[in-house]
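User: Look at the shape:
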Amino acid sequence: MNLSLTEEQSMIQDMARKFAETELAPVAAELDHTNDQNIFQGNLAKLAELGFMGLYVKAEYGGVEAGAVSFSLVITEIARACASTAVTTSVTNLVAEIIQTVGNEEQKQKYLPKICSGEYKAGGFCLTESGAGSDPAGMKTTATKEGDDYILNGSKIFITSGTFAGIFVVWAVTDTSARRGKGISCFLVEAGTPGMTIGKPEDKMGQKASPTTEVHFDNCRVPKSALMGVENKGFAIAVGELAGGRIGIGSLALGVGLAAMDYAKAYIVERKQFGQALSNFQGLQWMLAERYTELEAARLLLMQAAFNKDSGLAFGASASMAKLFATEKANTACYDALQMMGGSGYIKEYPLERYARDVRVTSIYEGTSEIQKVIISRSLLQEL
C-alpha cells in the first residue's frame, strides 16, 4: 500500500502548518486566558480565505474539493497550535459536507458559498440534547408541520460556535408516533430566525476560545424549503455524518498529542537533573518511544479511515477505531508529557497544562470512547 501523500495533499498540509505556526500558535495562550473573539474569529476568516472551511465542497460552490485525507491533515496541523480553532474548523466543514451531500441545489447554492467564503463565520451542528447525547435517537425537539412551514420546539446543548454560526443544521422529530430513530428530519435554520435563541457560552475546562452553547427553539417557524432530504428520514444523515466528524476529532486529538510530546521532548533535552540532561534517563526515553509510536499508529488509522472515505468505501468502523485510539492515546501523551516536565508542566507559563485540558474532551464529543467501542463491536459481529 502506498501511504505517500499526493502533491496537492502535501501542499495543503504545508499551508496549514505554516498558518498554524505563524498565526495561531502565537495567540493560543492568550485566547485560552482572554477568549478574545476578535482574534479568534479573525483567524477563522483567514482560514476561510485559504479554503479550509470548504475542504469537501465542490469548486462550483466555492470549495476546494480536497477530500478527507486533506481534511485530516489540516485539522491535525491546526490543532498542534490551537485546539479551539481546530474544533470550529472541523465542525464547520462537517456542516458544509452535510449540506452538499443532502441538500437540494437551491440549498447548496444559497449556503455553501457563504460557508466557504467566511461570510458565515461558522456552521452549527445541532443534534445533542440533555437526554439525547450518546443516544441521539431519544431526542425530544419537535418540528410540527403547519401549512407550508414547520414549527420547531425544543433545545440542543453543547453546540460548537453557537454564538456566531451563520447557519445551523438541526435535527427534530417530525413523526412522534414513529419508533425510536425513525420519524426524525433534518433542517437548515439561519442565525437570527425568530424563535431561536442562543444560550451563553459554557465555562469549559479547555478549548475555551471556541464557544459552546445551548440553542433553544420556541415556536421557531421555518419554511418547508428548510427541510433537507426526505421528511422522517433524517436520522440516517446524522449517523452517517458523525462518522466523518470522528475523523476530524481524532485528527484534532492527534495534533494536540503531538504538540505536547514535541514540547516535552525539547524540554527534557535542555533540563538537567543529577548532573545530566533528563533525556539521558531511560525511563523518559521509553515514555517518548511509547507515546510517539502510539501517535504514529493513530495517524495511520486516521489516514486509513480518510482514504476509505475518499475512495467511496465503507468507513464507519475504521473512523470509530481511529477516533477511539487517537483520542485515548493523545490523552495519555498529554498527561505523560506533563509528567516528563515535572512541576513545570503544571504551571501556566508552559503550554502543557493547556494541552492536557484541551485534549480531555476529545474522548467525549463526537461519540464517547465507550460509544466507539459499541460501534466497532457491532461492526465486527455483523461480519458473522
Observations:
- The first helix runs from residue 7 to 34.
- The first strand starts at residue 123 and ends at 126.
- The chain has a mean pLDDT of 96.
